[in-house]
């Protein structure tokens, strides 16, 4: 009697085990390090990991969330010692030091699987170094001009599409006693966004990439043309005063109070603007205008990523986790308005109803034929990014120093890429 | 009784106790000082001859890093700015000493509630430098800051102290003087307690008062306090880092950097990781500090021999 019960139970257990897909047999420990320390992204990630845990009950998952800024330096330590199995990071040149040092696992095998190869094709380039893929993206977001629709309406302006319209609009805004753009360049990278757009629109995506890779002189006439266009805006007083003193958050009130009409920013600026009381009737979005009609439009769309450190202990479980993260359903879920509020990387996923996400998605998928850049400080090597963004800031405050700034950047280029 | 009887059987430790004991007590301190100070100093010297990103293998480059620093100096680039600002810091930061002295003299009286005033004056030294930096950042804010409200009363301004490369270093030093003055004040207050009343009495009889009394009677007796105030202020000026990091991050366009911050920027910040280059800057900073430290040690040594 007793043994019969035992046997039935064993058979039952076996049949249950058979019913669950093979991947459920993942065991051991899976240690995940995250840099998503802000409350909303943190909750999103933790919920996602819980869903993964539910699929793999035998896996002991341990999650560590590290402050986003501190993470940028700590990653150097934990990739070499006491290594997690999965870690977040950024695409493109930002991952290059770790790829070159052999600290990231080559995950080209994942990218060869049809599920990923077909649905994540658009971000493959950003994850590729030396013809191999070194991680998977989990979210990205558009950049563009966020503007006060009510101010545009008041002045009778429409969304510009060409440089002439842009300048004419801006002149009217300045004449009304406002600045066209708010910006805070204390931490430098915001000026990198302006340079990205002005240079990509003036000289094209290819040229921009070559400049980031150190293949073009900073004293090239084409680079000077980019700065000449920038100077047109600076000279007419398009940017708020004293921007070198403010962070990007501290620059938000100018737009909220109506002292500035627009902000060239990533989509993450929408949440604080809404929190500050701007409604969707007051706030709208347009793609950065075309400047040189001969070059194809290209956009900035920074991508955040997951990687497997080369020293990870449980790479099998880590790979499964990466598959899970980029799956269509998870992508829809974690990028929706209630969670990250950004764009899903999987082509099969649904984009949230949010009007900015919808516009951004449409822009990136159909109106960015030139290509998609990551962002200046992710595309250019760290040292060059730092030196150049400092130069951009100085240029925005003292445009007359341009020749001196470019000479300095050219010297930096000769030193940095020479190694 | 037995101990006296058998001196030969006394252990080696017992015989040498007098000589060993101080070293035993010093051992933990020496050990930590070696591991955390002396050895890293030599490691920095060594590292400054390499090019290393903190991840891959270090490449020996000889004096290349120092050569690059030299060219930055010639080109009036970041290294030049940092050295120049360090010099400004060194000179202006010393203002904390006379300022502290005068506040101490002012507070060195017995009226009701003087302890409260003293603690209020000492307060800025107690709060974190980070808080001091934030408070002054808001004070200087070009749009909403108190400073410009104040200047506005006189029809002056607006002035963007932290956004103008001409004023920024002075603005940060001024913020730094606030806690540093409090520190010097407390040093002088303790010094004033030890001033000999008989000498003051004698000076009075000879008709000394006011500035003459201060200069000839009080200040000589405050020499130890002045010395310590000088040491901590010089060291404080050379390691000025937290205020710059909080208030400007070395900006605008790198014009408020000092050596300590530049070193951090090159070696450890988000866009940094040139370890060898950072080490070279650290070595230069160390050599500058060494001049002062040698001078301090020498004058302390002279003092001790004088007694």
Explained architecture:
Chain A has 419 residues and is α/β, with parallel strands linked by helices. Chain A folds into two domains: 24-141 and 302-349, Periplasmic binding protein-like II (D-Maltodextrin-Binding Protein, domain 2, 3-Layer(aba) Sandwich); 143-300 and 374-416, D-Maltodextrin-Binding Protein, domain 2 (3-Layer(aba) Sandwich). In chain A, 49% of the residues lie in helices and 14% in strands. Chain A is built from 19 helices and 13 strands. Chain A has helices at residues 2-19, 39-55, 68-78, 96-100, 108-112, 114-119, 121-127, 149-154, 163-175, 189-212, 221-235, 252-256, 270-275, 315-326, 328-334, 355-366, 376-379, 382-397, 402-416, and strands at residues 28-34, 59-65, 86-90, 128-129, 132-133, 136-140, 143-148, 179-181, 260-266, 283-286, 298-300, 303-307, 371-373. In chain A, strands 2-1-3-12-6 form a five-stranded mixed β-sheet, sandwiched between helices. In chain A, strand 4 (128-129) and strand 5 (132-133) form a beta hairpin. In chain A, helix 10 (189-212) runs antiparallel to helix 11 (221-235). Chain A starts with a helix and ends with a helix. In chain A, 47% of the residues are buried. Chain B is mostly helical and 307 residues long. Chain B has two domains: 2-47, no CATH class; 68-306, Orthogonal Bundle (MetI-like fold), CATH 1.10.3720.10. Helices cover 72% and strands 1% of the residues of chain B. Chain B has 15 helices and two strands. In chain B, strands 1-2 form a two-stranded antiparallel ribbon. Chain B is flat. The interface between A and B is medium-sized, with 32 and 27 residues.
Key phrases:
heterodimer, A: 419 residues, alpha/beta, D-Maltodextrin-Binding Protein, domain 2, 2 domains, 5-stranded mixed β-sheet, 4-stranded mixed β-sheet, 13 strands, 49% helix, B: 307 residues, mainly alpha, MetI-like fold, 2 strands
